[in-house]
Design goal:
Layout lengths: L1 E3 L2 H13 L4 E6 L5 H13 L2 E6 L19 H10 L4 E3 L3 H4 L17 H5 L3 H16 L3 E5 L3 H13 L5 E5 L19 H6 L2 H14 L4 H12 L3 E9 L10 E9 L4 E9 L4
Parallel strand pairs: 1-4, 2-3, 2-5, 3-4, 5-6
Antiparallel strand pairs: 7-8, 8-9
Helix pairs in contact: 6-7, 9-10
Pathway: Cofactor biosynthesis; (R)-pantothenate biosynthesis; (R)-pantothenate from (R)-pantoate and beta-alanine: step 1/1
Catalytic activity: (R)-pantoate + beta-alanine + ATP = (R)-pantothenate + AMP + diphosphate + H(+)
Organism: Planococcus dechangensis
Length: about 280
């Protein structure tokens, strides 16, 4: 496994791979790897000749009062896990390497960023699009892999690739969960012992909400009541929307999504399913 830090060295490696006609699968991450990231690698290995994992905590997607400085980082551990998973190249640039000067241009995520996490994190998804656009141009992947836990991010990136004709595919990978149902997340380390015991209630709430929606009841009110009684977290949002368009009143593929703020961790989760009209 190679670790490349400069754009120049990484582009040189990509050019050699492309000359040989072999394929590249890209797994973009912010590091502090867990089984969810490794499931992306597993699928990428099965579908490509080479797997590139980017490890970059992207400052462009963090707001002024968010956790950029304390976002968990452990590159030595990440490198070991990536090598064990047979990643071919880790691309781990510095912020100065990725953003050597202030950009005069910006990419807007538009209406897709006006709901769910985007409603309370203005500019977040614009920052996500900034970094993935750079990564897609640098890595020239045939396929890039994203987990469904970040379903709004996934929908926005799929729209970027489709609407601007990026010569690549986006593959969705199912959310990886702990045995008790909690979605794997790098931010789970922020949870206190008591909060960690409550956190699986988020997935329980989603399952209750899906059942309510399929039976024609209001899933949002039922989920909010359950979360308020079963957790100490503050509800940011609970929403039922179409997917991947993220519009109200779905009648086909739908997403039930939630975000709950605990003392030091904001957790998100979702279920995507087909909602049949009753």
């Amino acid at each position: 496994m190679q670790v490349l830090n400069s754009l120049q060295d990484f582009k040189a490696w990509v050019r050699e791979v492309k000359k040989s006609g072999r394929t590249i699968g890209l797994v973009p991450t912010m590091g502090f790897l867990h089984e969810g990231h490794l499931s992306l690698v597993e699928q990428a290995k099965a579908e490509n000749d080479f797997v590139v994992m980017s490890i970059f905590v992207n400052p462009a997607q963090f707001g002024p009062n968010e956790d950029f400085d304390r976002y968990p980082r452990d590159f030595e551990r990440d490198s070991m896990l990536a090598e064990q998973a047979w990643v071919d190249v880790i691309f781990a640039p510095s912020a100065e390497e990725m953003y050597p000067r202030k950009s005069q241009l910006s990419i807007s995520a538009g209406p897709l960023a006006s709901v769910l996490c985007g409603a309370s994190r203005p500019g977040h998804f614009d920052g996500v699009l900034k970094v993935v656009t750079k990564l897609f141009h640098l890595a020239e992947p045939d396929i890039a892999y994203f987990g469904q836990k970040d379903a709004q991010q996934l929908a926005i990136i799929e729209s970027l690739v489709r609407d601007f004709n990026f010569p690549m595919e986006i593959h969705r990978v199912a959310t990886v969960r702990e045995k008790d149902g909690l979605a794997k997340s790098s931010r789970n380390v922020y949870l206190s012992e008591a909060e960690r015991k409550q956190a699986p209630k988020l997935y329980e709430a989603l399952k209750l909400g899906k059942k309510a929606a399929m039976q024609g009841r209001d899933p949002v009110s039922e989920m909010k009541g359950f979360l308020q009684s079963e957790t100490s977290g503050v509800i940011d949002y609970v929403e039922l929307l179409s997917y991947p368009d993220l519009t109200p009143s779905p009648d086909g593929q739908a997403i039930l999504a939630l975000a709950v703020q605990f003392e030091r961790a904001r957790l998100i989760d979702n279920i995507i399913f087909t909602l049949k009209e009753n």
